[in-house]
Write a structure and sequence with these properties.
seven-stranded mixed sheet, 7 strands, about 30% helix, alpha/beta, Rossmann fold, Protein-lysine N-methyltransferase TEA_010295, Efm5/EEF1AKMT1
Length: about 200
């Protein structure tokens, strides 16, 4: 489960010189290109190292890249503070962004997380009523009062429970996994995404 707390960022403008914007020499431009190229390569190497293999014993089935990017771009600004709630302690490599979480103890979390988040992306490990009920308790613990954005990725079989417990509606977008799973997965939201995410499916 991943939670997001929105934070304000500030930008400062710098006045341009009256004679026009400053120009770099050809040598300086080349040095800058080399530096940026090295930075990009280093970033890619770090990202590769950070990837973890699925552990099916923990009901881990990673989404494919398109699904992950679609969900991340929906409401997650790259400048906001993220918190990953996860049972698998291999994710401790992400430092302060990781918090150990066992859905069987839905509110056994640091008090600093209580009512702290406006955006929550939940991906329960199991397709059972009990699991979704306990994850719902965790969501209630985490959300800020007022307007919140909930995104739930889970199996089609949870459709009625998602509506009953969290007031969520299915979107047209269909999450896909890197590994082929027999269960059809859906993305549910508590807000109307408009034309994004395939929109809300009409009530049947």
């Amino acid at each position: 489960m991943e939670e997001v707390r929105e934070e304000r960022t500030h930008t400062h403008s710098v006045p341009e010189d009256e004679d026009g914007p400053p120009m770099l020499s050809a040598e300086a431009l080349e040095a800058l290109k080399d530096f940026l190229s090295d930075q990009n390569r280093n970033g890619e190497e770090e990202e590769e190292v950070a990837l973890l293999a699925e552990d099916w014993r923990l009901s881990q089935f990673w989404y494919d890249r398109h699904t992950a990017e679609t969900v991340a771009k929906e409401k997650i600004d790259p400048n906001v503070s993220l918190k990953l709630l996860e049972y698998d302690k291999r994710f401790e490599q992400y430092g302060g962004e990781f918090t150990f979480y066992d859905y069987n103890q839905p509110e056994q979390l640091p008090s600093s997380l209580k009512n702290a988040y406006q955006i929550i992306v939940a991906d329960p490990p199991y397709l059972s009523k009990e699991c979704l009920e306990k994850v719902t308790q965790t969501i209630s613990f985490l959300v800020q009062p007022g307007n919140v954005y909930l995104l739930l990725l889970t199996g089609e079989v949870q459709k009625d429970r998602a509506a009953e417990l969290l007031g969520l509606h299915p979107c047209g977008f269909r999450p896909q996994h890197s590994s082929k799973l027999g269960n059809e997965f859906r993305l549910f939201t508590n807000y109307d995404p408009g034309m994004r995410l395939g929109g809300w499916e009409p009530d049947q």
